[in-house]
Amino acid sequence: MKTRIRELRAKTGLTQEELARQVGVRRETIVFLEKGKYNPSLKLAYKVARTLGSTIEEVFTFEEEDLA
């Protein structure tokens, strides 16, 4: 999975800590999401996308092998 969290977070001026607080997770979770090392729940993906002013599809990209 690839994400645009870092890019979109920078555009909105949010730190990892601020984004984490707004979506109800620890900062480390945001770090793992940004690195593509953690697959979020649908609820978390929605909260992240909404907070960043985007859609889930704009924030997260799943490769074919991710979906197999």
UniProtKB/TrEMBL annotation:
It comes from the Archaea. It holds the Pfam family HTH_3. The keyword DNA-binding applies. GO terms for molecular function: DNA binding. InterPro entries: Cro/C1-type_HTH, Lambda_DNA-bd_dom_sf. Keywords: DNA-binding. Residues 5-59 form the HTH cro/C1-type domain. SMART domains: HTH_XRE. The keyword DNA-binding applies. This is Helix-turn-helix transcriptional regulator. It comes from Methanoculleus palmolei.
